[in-house]
Every structure is written in structure tokens, then in C-alpha cells.
# Entry
Amino acid sequence: MSTPFRCGFVAVVGRPNVGKSTLSNALIGAKVSIVSRKAQTTRHRIHGVLTREHEQFVFVDTPGFQTRHGGAMNRMMNRVVTQTLADVDVVVHVVEAGKWSAGDANLLPLLPKDGTKVILAVNKIDALKNRDDLFAYVGKLASLYPYDAVVPVSALKSRQLDHLLTEIAQRLPEGEPMFEVDALTDRSTRFIAAELIREKIFRLVGDELPYACTVVIEQWEETEKGASVAACIVVERDSHRPILLGAGGQHMKRIATEARQELIKLLDKPVHLEVYIKVRKGWSDKESALRELGYE
Ligand SMILES: Nc1nc2c(ncn2[C@@H]2O[C@H](COP(=O)(O)OP(=O)(O)OP(=O)(O)O)[C@@H](O)[C@H]2O)c(=O)[nH]1
# Structure
């Protein structure tokens, strides 16, 4: 009898900064969502698809679960997490080896009661000082939730990823592939471009402007020879503008230059990029404004 094909949705969840984006990207094998050293950089649901001989994994990367800040943005983010977990076939709960905080614990009530579809991925094992601690750590977590499997991994060093994929594959339902075989992402290039610009902003001024800005691609003209892109950075307050600009506009210059270089790599052609700032008061706390700007 031939091996049946399996295909299903996989959610990668965990508190901010545990390495969810790095792990999804390493599993999929391409840079589809943006990795940043700052927390809270993945506010969108991102699908990436990995197709193997007998399986297709459709990854849903969810925003960081959080309780520290109030507001419409966070309620929406938590709703996305709950909904995602109910929808998918397999949940990969990512934690950081040796570290367990309130942020991790807060996610447990959102996991399905029955643990059969939940795999615990203990990430960053490369950074662990004492390997023996891992055993006690996993034991403690297993007493908090009935995980169906536990896989220690290093997303950064690509360790144990095949093992994790095998555990996920076993839990996918039988079915035909949902995506074209070479599909990397169902997000448009424009979306990825906006994320690239946002990543540059976070890296440069993320400490001063946490969540306070988003990027909207306002113009996108692309031919075989090149692309012309206009991107608008929407901030909440007038006071955010000088932070983004930096002395003599140096921050904006750097953001635009670095983003342009990445866009050239992404599109593999010359890119003209114009980036400007718009102030829109209180946007991050208004659900309707969020929707308008493309947050689900
Ligand atoms: N040492 C080590 N660092 C890692 C590993 N995986 C991820 N990181 C680092 O951890 C940081 C956070 O990684 P992300 O992938 O952005 O984490 P995230 O959970 O998606 O974060 P949010 O988008 O804030 O929810 C980055 O600096 C990564 O390089 C790993 O296996 N080992």
C-alpha cells in the first residue's frame, strides 16, 4: 500500500522572543517572516508552506501572546491566538530552554484542553549552559500541560528540525496538498516589503517606538527592469516624527537605504524606494483603524 499524503495547518505559538519566527523560517527553509531582535515584531498572521514527498505543512505564525499592555491591539492579538489554535491541526508551543516566565504560563489556558495535537518545542538549546538542566525543565513543563511530544531544538543552528517535522507530520490529517508545490508564502511581495521596512524601524528605534508605527505600501509599480515603491510609516503622535527622523533625518535615511537593499535582494532588480511619515492619532488603540491598515 502506498503512503497516504498528509496536509494540514500548523500553528507556532509562544511568548514573544522565544524564536517562533526563526523556527518557522528554519522549518520552511526561506525567509518569509521578519526576524528581529526586539520583542513583538510579528503582528500579522503569516502562512508559509513546506511541501515534502508525503506531507504539506501549512504554517500559521501567530503574534506573541501578551498581557502586559491593555488596549484593542492586544485583545485582538489574543483573539487571533485563540482562534488560530482552535483551527489548526497541530500546535507547536515554543519555549526557551531553561526559561519559564509569566508570559509562557499565560499561554497555557489558550492551548486545547486535550494535548494530543500539541508539541512542545524547547528552543535555543545551543545557548543552554548545562545540558542536564534540560531534563528537569522538561519534567516541570510536562507537569503543567499534557504535551503529546517534546522536542528540544535550535532554530538558529537548525538542530533537531527533522525530528520536529516528523512529529508534526504524524499528526497531520490525510489529504491533498492545499498549495502549489513551490509556494513559499501566501502573503504578497508588497506585504513582505512592508514587513522589511518595519523590521528596519524596529531595529533602529524599536525601543523608543514600541508598537507605535506601522508601514503601508502606498504605491507599487513593477516592471521587468525595476520597481518603484512608496511606503508610508504611520505613527501615533506628532512626537514620534522626530524620533523616526533622527538628527538631520539620519534614521529615516538609514531605514530607507537598508530597506531598499533588502528589496533589491527580494525582487532581484533595481528598486526606487520613497519612505515618508504620516501621523494618525491613536491608531493602535482603534480596532477599525487597525482593520483599515490591514490587521485582521
Ligand atoms: N541562541 C539562539 N537564539 C535564537 C534561537 N532561535 C531564535 N533565536 C533568537 O531569539 C530572538 C527572537 O527570535 P524571533 O524568531 O524573532 O522570536 P519570536 O518568538 O518570533 O518573537 P516575536 O515576533 O517578538 O513574537 C532573535 O534574536 C533570534 O535570533 C536559537 O535556537 N538559539
